[in-house]
Amino acid sequence: MRNPHDIIRKPIVTEESMNDMAEGKYTFVVDKKANKTEIKNAIEKIFDVKVSKVNTLNMTGKLKRMGANIGRRPSWKKAVVTLTEDSKGIEFFEGM
User: Fold this and answer.
1) Where is it found, in Gene Ontology cellular component terms (predicted)?
2) Of 31, 66, 70, 94, which one has the greatest count of Cβ atoms within 10 A?
3) What residues does each domain of the chain span?
4) What beta strand segments (E) does the chain contain?
């Protein structure tokens, strides 16, 4: 089994993700090769909470230009994790 910290890269802290916290939903950047089961197990192990549902989205990198050259930012994977009703929440997000 892979290290949970290799699966969960970083949290996404935006206005929309902060509004979803009231519903028990937390957003993370995850490894592109990780599946929903691996993401669920990693979140439960790192933050000691119960996960009820995981939604994943493959995000395409944006096109960027430097003069005549056109490049692309790297693509990444986003996971929206919904906690169970009896879970207390993730302490990492509480102070934001």
Assistant:
1) ribonucleoprotein complex; ribosome
2) 31
3) 4-85
4) 8-11, 25-30, 51-59, 63-66, 69-72, 76-83
- Look at the block and give the residue holding tokens 């003069």: 67
* Tokens standing for residue 8: 């969960």
pLDDT tens, per residue, the chain with 96 residues: 689 999 999 999 999 999 999 899 999 999 999 999 999 999 999 999 999 999 999 999 999 999 999 999 999 999 999 999 988 888 776 665
d(CA 30, CA 19): 20
For β-strands 69-72 and 63-66, DSSP reports them as antiparallel
CATH superfamily of domain region 4-85: RRM (RNA recognition motif) domain (3.30.70.330)
Q: Report the predicted TM-score, pTM, of the whole model to 2 decimal places.
A: 0.89
Which residue has 């230009």 as its token pair? Answer: 65
Tokens, residue 57: 């989205």
